[in-house]
């Protein structure tokens, strides 16, 4: 078994429901081909470097999974057939991986995701107050910058032109 990473760019105009259906179809392909899905990382909507299918933006999704070459072939075949996938790229991360180590890594990733959701701090009253103080400081800095700009403009208007050097 090998460990792969596939990044694909989906159509930015597709609905959230269509995106979920696409991800479910990808999960189904991985399961059907006896692969192990380790991580699905949605990078979100990003500007493309160049126009693809007359689109300037794309929705990026990164999949990390374990499987065989047949899994990659089937996954890429389905990407080519789908009108919702604009581009994709698969890279081999690790050549020789055991199924047990992949399953363990998948469990650790699920546990980390669960802990991250639980640890997401609810905004406390103190944090809110600190945010207000920070906003007030930012406003004070902007006002100070504006005053500096006006002083510079006034001094530029009153300064006399420099004499030109004679040859």
Walk me through what this model shows.
With 167 residues, this protein is of the alpha+beta class. The protein has four helices and four strands. Strand 2 and strand 3 form a beta hairpin. The longest helix is centred in the C-terminal third of the chain and has 34 residues, at 125-158. The chain is globular. Residues 152-157 have low confidence and may be disordered.
Distance between the termini: 79 Å
> What percent of the residues sit in helical stretches (DSSP H or I)?
40-55%
What order do the helices and strands follow? EHEEHEHH
Say how many strands there are: 4
Provide the low-confidence segments as ranges.
152-157
* Alpha carbon gyration radius: 27 Å
Shape descriptor: globular
Largest sheet: 4 strands, antiparallel
Beta-strand content estimate: 25-35%
Oligomer kind: single chain
Spatial arrangement of strands, main beta sheet: 2-3-1-4
List the helices and strands and how they pair.
Layout: E1 2-10, H1 16-32, E2 36-52, E3 55-67, H2 69-81, E4 85-94, H3 99-119, H4 125-158
Antiparallel strand pairs: 1-3, 1-4, 2-3
Descriptive terms for the model:
167 residues; alpha+beta; 4-stranded antiparallel beta sheet; 4 helices; 4 strands; 29% strand
Question: What would you say about this model in short?
Answer:
With 167 residues, the chain is α+β, with helices and mostly antiparallel strands. It has 4 helices and 4 strands. 14% of the residues are buried.
């Amino acid at each position: 078994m090998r460990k792969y990473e596939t990044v694909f760019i989906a159509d930015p105009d597709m609905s959230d429901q269509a995106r979920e259906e696409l991800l479910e179809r990808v999960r189904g392909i991985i399961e059907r081909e006896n692969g192990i899905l380790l991580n699905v990382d949605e990078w979100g909507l990003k500007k493309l470097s160049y126009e693809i299918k007359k689109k300037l933006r794309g929705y990026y999704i990164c999949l990390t999974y374990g499987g065989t070459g047949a899994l990659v072939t089937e996954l890429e075949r389905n990407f080519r057939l789908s009108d919702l996938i604009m581009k994709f790229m698969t890279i081999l991360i690790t050549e020789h991986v055991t199924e047990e180590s992949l399953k363990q890594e998948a469990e650790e990733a699920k546990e980390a995701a669960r802990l991250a959701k639980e640890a997401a701090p609810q905004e406390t009253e103190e944090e809110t107050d600190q945010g207000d103080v920070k906003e007030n400081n930012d406003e004070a800095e902007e006002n100070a910058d504006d005053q500096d700009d006006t002083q510079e403009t006034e001094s530029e208007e009153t300064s006399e032109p420099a004499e030109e050097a004679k040859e």
